[in-house]
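name: query_chain
kind: protein
chains: 1
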Amino acid sequence: QVQLVESGGGLVQPGGSLRLSCASSGLSFSIYAMGWYRQAPGKQRELVAVITSGGSTNYADSVKGRFTISRDNAKKTQYLQMNSLKPEDAAVYYCNAHTRVIDYWGQGTQVTVSS
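structure:
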């Protein structure tokens, strides 16, 4: 059974930092592209960042230069380092693992940015 478990969310002040983690089990982690998505209340889920099995990365324009996605294949874990957080970054952040034929999602972790 595939599981993706996010952690690291919480409350942070504007300008602060958080590091999200997504630990996986039950899948051949290294062959999957991994991503982070977020969904704010009343909004559609949106892509934040993605990292391919080869390590190439892509970011939403809104987070470029502030967020960094990474992966540790040995630990079957991906990360999202979020710096200079803004109130508009507040959302539930979801971990995603995908290939061309299959998609897996975590349960989400809440990020709140507020003073």
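note: The chain has a mean pLDDT of 97.
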